[in-house]
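Annex B.
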Amino acid sequence: MAPAADREGYWGPTTSTLDWCEENYAVTWYIAEFWNTVSNLIMIIPPIFGAIQSIRDGLEKRYIASYLALTVVGMGSWCFHMTLKYEMQLLDELPMIYSCCIFVYCMFECFKVKNSVNYHLLFTLILFSLIVTTVYLKVKEPIFHQVMYGMLVFTLVLRSIYIVTWVYPWLRGLGYTSLGIFLLGFLLWNIDNIFCDSLRNFRKKVPPIIGVTTQFHAWWHILTGLGSYLHILFSLYTRTLYLRYRPKVKFLFGIWPVILFEPLRKH
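Alkaline ceramidase: predicted C-alpha coordinates.
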Protein backbone atom coordinates (compact mmCIF):
# COMPACT_ATOMS: atom_id res chain seq x y z
CA MET A 1 0.00 0.00 0.00
CA ALA A 2 1.00 3.60 -0.46
CA PRO A 3 2.85 5.56 2.23
CA ALA A 4 0.86 8.28 3.94
CA ALA A 5 2.81 11.21 2.48
CA ASP A 6 1.01 11.80 -0.83
CA ARG A 7 0.00 15.13 -2.34
CA GLU A 8 -3.62 16.22 -2.67
CA GLY A 9 -5.28 17.21 -5.92
CA TYR A 10 -8.56 18.08 -7.57
CA TRP A 11 -10.65 15.49 -5.68
CA GLY A 12 -9.44 16.53 -2.23
CA PRO A 13 -8.40 14.29 0.67
CA THR A 14 -8.49 10.51 0.25
CA THR A 15 -11.52 8.90 1.90
CA SER A 16 -11.17 5.36 0.52
CA THR A 17 -10.05 2.56 2.83
CA LEU A 18 -7.33 1.68 0.30
CA ASP A 19 -4.64 3.80 -1.31
CA TRP A 20 -2.44 1.95 -3.76
CA CYS A 21 1.26 2.24 -4.47
CA GLU A 22 1.08 4.67 -7.36
CA GLU A 23 2.08 8.19 -6.33
CA ASN A 24 -1.05 10.35 -6.01
CA TYR A 25 -1.55 13.24 -8.47
CA ALA A 26 1.95 12.71 -9.86
CA VAL A 27 0.91 12.95 -13.54
CA THR A 28 -2.02 15.37 -13.43
CA TRP A 29 -3.84 17.38 -10.78
CA TYR A 30 -7.16 15.93 -11.96
CA ILE A 31 -6.45 12.20 -11.54
CA ALA A 32 -5.26 10.75 -8.23
CA GLU A 33 -3.69 7.59 -9.67
CA PHE A 34 -3.19 8.21 -13.38
CA TRP A 35 -1.86 4.84 -14.56
CA ASN A 36 -4.20 2.88 -12.28
CA THR A 37 -7.03 4.85 -13.87
CA VAL A 38 -6.29 4.70 -17.60
CA SER A 39 -5.34 1.01 -17.41
CA ASN A 40 -9.05 0.30 -16.89
CA LEU A 41 -9.76 1.09 -20.55
CA ILE A 42 -9.08 -2.58 -21.34
CA MET A 43 -12.03 -3.50 -19.12
CA ILE A 44 -14.32 -0.81 -20.54
CA ILE A 45 -14.02 -0.69 -24.33
CA PRO A 46 -13.56 -4.31 -25.57
CA PRO A 47 -16.47 -5.74 -23.53
CA ILE A 48 -18.80 -3.09 -24.97
CA PHE A 49 -18.04 -4.37 -28.45
CA GLY A 50 -18.45 -7.92 -27.14
CA ALA A 51 -21.91 -7.07 -25.82
CA ILE A 52 -22.91 -5.44 -29.14
CA GLN A 53 -21.73 -8.50 -31.07
CA SER A 54 -23.59 -10.80 -28.66
CA ILE A 55 -26.82 -8.87 -29.27
CA ARG A 56 -26.29 -9.08 -33.05
CA ASP A 57 -25.67 -12.82 -32.81
CA GLY A 58 -28.81 -13.34 -30.73
CA LEU A 59 -26.93 -14.86 -27.81
CA GLU A 60 -28.49 -15.50 -24.43
CA LYS A 61 -28.81 -12.42 -22.24
CA ARG A 62 -26.47 -13.85 -19.59
CA TYR A 63 -23.51 -13.37 -21.95
CA ILE A 64 -24.52 -9.83 -22.80
CA ALA A 65 -24.73 -9.24 -19.04
CA SER A 66 -21.24 -10.75 -18.59
CA TYR A 67 -19.67 -8.31 -21.04
CA LEU A 68 -21.54 -5.33 -19.62
CA ALA A 69 -20.69 -6.34 -16.04
CA LEU A 70 -16.98 -6.29 -16.93
CA THR A 71 -17.45 -2.82 -18.41
CA VAL A 72 -19.16 -1.66 -15.20
CA VAL A 73 -16.22 -2.98 -13.15
CA GLY A 74 -13.82 -1.04 -15.38
CA MET A 75 -15.83 2.16 -15.09
CA GLY A 76 -16.11 1.78 -11.31
CA SER A 77 -12.38 1.15 -11.02
CA TRP A 78 -11.71 4.21 -13.21
CA CYS A 79 -13.80 6.38 -10.86
CA PHE A 80 -12.15 4.90 -7.76
CA HIS A 81 -8.55 5.37 -8.85
CA MET A 82 -9.29 8.78 -10.31
CA THR A 83 -10.75 10.10 -7.04
CA LEU A 84 -9.70 7.77 -4.18
CA LYS A 85 -13.12 8.41 -2.63
CA TYR A 86 -14.87 5.75 -0.55
CA GLU A 87 -18.09 5.92 -2.57
CA MET A 88 -16.14 5.32 -5.77
CA GLN A 89 -14.27 2.46 -4.10
CA LEU A 90 -17.62 0.73 -3.57
CA LEU A 91 -18.44 1.38 -7.22
CA ASP A 92 -15.31 -0.59 -8.06
CA GLU A 93 -15.37 -3.40 -5.51
CA LEU A 94 -19.06 -4.37 -5.33
CA PRO A 95 -19.45 -4.82 -9.12
CA MET A 96 -16.44 -7.18 -8.93
CA ILE A 97 -18.62 -9.44 -6.78
CA TYR A 98 -21.69 -9.04 -8.97
CA SER A 99 -19.82 -9.67 -12.23
CA CYS A 100 -18.21 -12.83 -10.84
CA CYS A 101 -21.66 -14.08 -9.81
CA ILE A 102 -22.80 -13.63 -13.42
CA PHE A 103 -19.70 -15.51 -14.61
CA VAL A 104 -20.44 -18.33 -12.16
CA TYR A 105 -24.03 -18.57 -13.37
CA CYS A 106 -22.89 -18.78 -16.99
CA MET A 107 -20.29 -21.45 -16.25
CA PHE A 108 -22.69 -23.70 -14.37
CA GLU A 109 -25.44 -23.30 -16.99
CA CYS A 110 -23.29 -24.14 -20.01
CA PHE A 111 -24.88 -27.55 -20.49
CA LYS A 112 -28.56 -26.69 -20.24
CA VAL A 113 -31.20 -26.23 -22.95
CA LYS A 114 -31.20 -22.85 -24.64
CA ASN A 115 -32.75 -19.93 -22.74
CA SER A 116 -33.34 -22.03 -19.63
CA VAL A 117 -33.26 -20.35 -16.22
CA ASN A 118 -31.89 -21.98 -13.08
CA TYR A 119 -33.89 -20.15 -10.43
CA HIS A 120 -32.22 -21.93 -7.51
CA LEU A 121 -28.71 -20.93 -8.64
CA LEU A 122 -29.94 -17.44 -9.49
CA PHE A 123 -31.46 -17.01 -6.03
CA THR A 124 -28.31 -18.34 -4.34
CA LEU A 125 -26.03 -15.93 -6.20
CA ILE A 126 -28.33 -12.95 -5.61
CA LEU A 127 -28.51 -13.82 -1.91
CA PHE A 128 -24.72 -14.17 -1.76
CA SER A 129 -24.33 -10.74 -3.40
CA LEU A 130 -26.78 -9.14 -0.98
CA ILE A 131 -25.07 -10.66 2.06
CA VAL A 132 -21.60 -9.60 0.89
CA THR A 133 -22.85 -6.09 0.12
CA THR A 134 -24.58 -5.71 3.49
CA VAL A 135 -21.64 -7.04 5.52
CA TYR A 136 -19.07 -5.03 3.55
CA LEU A 137 -20.99 -1.78 3.96
CA LYS A 138 -21.06 -2.43 7.69
CA VAL A 139 -17.52 -3.65 8.41
CA LYS A 140 -15.66 -1.70 5.66
CA GLU A 141 -12.85 -4.24 5.76
CA PRO A 142 -11.11 -4.70 2.37
CA ILE A 143 -9.84 -8.16 3.33
CA PHE A 144 -13.44 -9.36 3.64
CA HIS A 145 -14.13 -8.21 0.09
CA GLN A 146 -10.93 -9.80 -1.19
CA VAL A 147 -11.78 -13.16 0.42
CA MET A 148 -15.32 -13.16 -0.99
CA TYR A 149 -14.02 -12.23 -4.44
CA GLY A 150 -11.36 -14.93 -4.17
CA MET A 151 -14.00 -17.55 -3.35
CA LEU A 152 -15.91 -16.71 -6.53
CA VAL A 153 -12.76 -16.76 -8.66
CA PHE A 154 -11.75 -20.11 -7.13
CA THR A 155 -15.19 -21.49 -8.02
CA LEU A 156 -14.70 -20.35 -11.62
CA VAL A 157 -11.25 -21.93 -11.75
CA LEU A 158 -12.53 -25.30 -10.51
CA ARG A 159 -15.41 -25.27 -12.99
CA SER A 160 -13.08 -24.33 -15.85
CA ILE A 161 -10.65 -27.11 -14.98
CA TYR A 162 -13.54 -29.59 -14.90
CA ILE A 163 -14.67 -28.52 -18.39
CA VAL A 164 -11.22 -28.69 -20.02
CA THR A 165 -10.42 -31.98 -18.28
CA TRP A 166 -13.62 -33.96 -18.72
CA VAL A 167 -15.84 -32.24 -21.31
CA TYR A 168 -13.93 -30.26 -23.95
CA PRO A 169 -10.19 -31.01 -23.60
CA TRP A 170 -9.42 -29.07 -26.80
CA LEU A 171 -10.38 -25.87 -24.96
CA ARG A 172 -7.41 -26.18 -22.61
CA GLY A 173 -5.45 -23.53 -24.52
CA LEU A 174 -8.12 -20.87 -24.11
CA GLY A 175 -9.05 -21.89 -20.57
CA TYR A 176 -5.52 -22.06 -19.22
CA THR A 177 -4.45 -18.88 -21.05
CA SER A 178 -7.28 -17.00 -19.33
CA LEU A 179 -6.31 -18.47 -15.96
CA GLY A 180 -2.57 -17.90 -16.44
CA ILE A 181 -2.99 -14.25 -17.40
CA PHE A 182 -5.26 -13.67 -14.42
CA LEU A 183 -2.81 -15.34 -12.01
CA LEU A 184 0.08 -13.29 -13.40
CA GLY A 185 -1.96 -10.17 -12.67
CA PHE A 186 -2.62 -11.43 -9.14
CA LEU A 187 1.12 -11.98 -8.64
CA LEU A 188 1.89 -8.41 -9.70
CA TRP A 189 -0.91 -7.12 -7.44
CA ASN A 190 0.80 -8.78 -4.48
CA ILE A 191 4.26 -7.50 -5.46
CA ASP A 192 2.82 -3.98 -5.70
CA ASN A 193 1.38 -4.29 -2.19
CA ILE A 194 4.32 -5.95 -0.48
CA PHE A 195 7.22 -4.05 -2.06
CA CYS A 196 5.60 -0.62 -2.43
CA ASP A 197 8.37 1.31 -0.65
CA SER A 198 11.06 -0.32 -2.78
CA LEU A 199 9.10 0.32 -5.98
CA ARG A 200 8.62 3.98 -5.10
CA ASN A 201 12.30 4.42 -4.33
CA PHE A 202 13.21 2.74 -7.61
CA ARG A 203 10.88 5.05 -9.56
CA LYS A 204 12.63 8.10 -8.06
CA LYS A 205 15.95 6.95 -9.52
CA VAL A 206 14.94 6.01 -13.07
CA PRO A 207 13.45 7.93 -16.02
CA PRO A 208 9.63 8.16 -15.93
CA ILE A 209 9.23 5.92 -18.97
CA ILE A 210 10.92 3.11 -17.03
CA GLY A 211 9.14 3.91 -13.79
CA VAL A 212 5.76 3.51 -15.50
CA THR A 213 6.52 -0.15 -16.21
CA THR A 214 6.68 -0.78 -12.44
CA GLN A 215 3.11 0.41 -11.85
CA PHE A 216 2.07 -3.16 -11.07
CA HIS A 217 -1.45 -2.34 -9.95
CA ALA A 218 -2.05 -0.93 -13.43
CA TRP A 219 -0.68 -4.19 -14.84
CA TRP A 220 -3.14 -6.01 -12.56
CA HIS A 221 -5.95 -4.13 -14.30
CA ILE A 222 -4.61 -4.92 -17.75
CA LEU A 223 -3.97 -8.60 -17.08
CA THR A 224 -7.13 -9.32 -15.09
CA GLY A 225 -9.16 -7.33 -17.61
CA LEU A 226 -7.76 -9.46 -20.42
CA GLY A 227 -8.06 -12.64 -18.33
CA SER A 228 -11.70 -11.89 -17.52
CA TYR A 229 -12.46 -11.11 -21.17
CA LEU A 230 -10.87 -14.40 -22.23
CA HIS A 231 -12.88 -16.18 -19.54
CA ILE A 232 -16.10 -14.84 -21.09
CA LEU A 233 -14.89 -16.13 -24.47
CA PHE A 234 -14.13 -19.50 -22.88
CA SER A 235 -17.58 -19.67 -21.28
CA LEU A 236 -19.26 -18.58 -24.51
CA TYR A 237 -17.23 -21.05 -26.57
CA THR A 238 -18.25 -23.87 -24.22
CA ARG A 239 -21.90 -22.84 -24.39
CA THR A 240 -22.08 -22.51 -28.18
CA LEU A 241 -20.33 -25.87 -28.63
CA TYR A 242 -22.99 -27.49 -26.47
CA LEU A 243 -25.71 -25.76 -28.49
CA ARG A 244 -24.12 -27.27 -31.63
CA TYR A 245 -22.89 -24.01 -33.07
CA ARG A 246 -19.48 -23.77 -34.70
CA PRO A 247 -17.51 -21.20 -32.67
CA LYS A 248 -14.12 -19.92 -33.75
CA VAL A 249 -11.74 -17.51 -32.06
CA LYS A 250 -10.53 -14.84 -34.48
CA PHE A 251 -8.10 -12.00 -33.90
CA LEU A 252 -9.16 -8.48 -34.87
CA PHE A 253 -6.26 -6.69 -36.54
CA GLY A 254 -4.22 -9.77 -35.67
CA ILE A 255 -4.23 -8.73 -31.99
CA TRP A 256 -7.55 -8.82 -30.13
CA PRO A 257 -9.46 -12.12 -29.71
CA VAL A 258 -13.17 -12.30 -30.52
CA ILE A 259 -15.51 -15.25 -30.94
CA LEU A 260 -17.42 -15.81 -34.15
CA PHE A 261 -19.76 -18.67 -34.93
CA GLU A 262 -22.59 -19.84 -37.10
CA PRO A 263 -25.46 -22.22 -36.35
CA LEU A 264 -25.04 -25.79 -37.51
CA ARG A 265 -26.99 -26.17 -40.73
CA LYS A 266 -29.76 -28.75 -40.76
CA HIS A 267 -29.85 -31.11 -43.71
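The mean pLDDT is 93. Strands lie at 248-252, 256-260. Further annotation is deferred to the next reporting cycle.
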